[in-house]
Design a protein that fits this description.
Radius of gyration: 19 Å
Oligomer: single chain
Helix content: over 70%
Distance between the termini: 29 Å
Strand content: under 5%
Length: 98
Amino acid sequence: MSMPVISMPCNPITMCQAVTNLIESIALEETALSHILNAEGEKLQKAVSMDCSMRELLEVNESVVNMVGAVSNMENVLKEKLEFVCNNLYYPSRDCEC
């Protein structure tokens, strides 16, 4: 998986472009979080398919629970970021062609 890239224009950024960039950054972070959750699911599947002891399975499960909790916290941060953009920065106008 490659690193996401947001292109930066040479000219000053308009408010419309700034809002678009913020929403795009949220979408890229959401994509990254989905990859993390997918990897955690694969980790669980691998642990279950191996001949692990109950203690080892519980340790893997605890690790996954911690990561899912961290992802959940990040989801809340992204939700607040999106709400801020929608409530405070997005003012559509006739000259804004987003």
